[in-house]
User: Which sequence fits this backbone?
């Protein structure tokens, strides 16, 4: 198959899936290497950006998905009769941050970091599809572990967790450590 036909086929696959599709699955379907499939998706992504289209192809880790441009969200909601999403509460933002930066984590870990029960917040984040169960630990009680989803990546407009901003350092704690480590000899 010619490259132009392969690119068209990759575009059709990404469109038809409606959900993020792994590069490996595209490669398997087109009988090409994963590298070639990723390159085709990157070319498509660039073409959509260049022509200022109302839709685009986004990379979500090792997956690609077709979605609408953010600026057209309001007219799309009107046509589809969708409610506007309510913003995350402070508690939900904190729990989401703890999970995103430390995943996979248990609810007990999140509660230890925050110092309060977070059962309701975790349930609401699962319902919003921002986090999901990633399995269970091999510990007594087999606690669930949670991690972020592809929907989380889309909502925060990042391709992978590597794009999360670095955590701020606590300069006061570092200064205090420096004072006690160096110490003054009396």
Assistant:
């Amino acid at each position: 198959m010619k490259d132009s036909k392969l690119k068209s086929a990759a575009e059709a696959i990404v469109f038809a899936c409606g959900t993020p599709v792994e590069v490996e699955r595209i490669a398997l379907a087109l009988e090409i290497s994963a590298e070639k499939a990723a390159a085709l998706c990157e070319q498509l992504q660039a073409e959509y950006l260049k022509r200022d289209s109302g839709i685009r192809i986004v990379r979500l880790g090792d997956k690609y998905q077709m979605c609408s441009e953010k600026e057209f969200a309001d007219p799309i909601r009107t046509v589809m009769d969708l409610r506007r999403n309510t913003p995350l509460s402070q508690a939900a933002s904190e729990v989401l941050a703890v999970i995103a930066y430390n995943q996979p984590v248990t609810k007990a870990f999140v509660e230890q970091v925050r110092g309060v029960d977070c059962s309701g917040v975790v349930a609401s984040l699962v319902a919003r599809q921002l986090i999901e169960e990633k399995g269970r630990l091999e510990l007594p009680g087999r606690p669930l572990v949670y991690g972020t989803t592809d929907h989380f990546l889309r909502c925060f407009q990042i391709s992978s967790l590597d794009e999360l901003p670095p955590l701020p350092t606590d300069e006061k704690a570092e200064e205090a450590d420096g004072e006690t480590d160096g110490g003054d000899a009396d």
Summary: The radius of gyration is 22 Å.
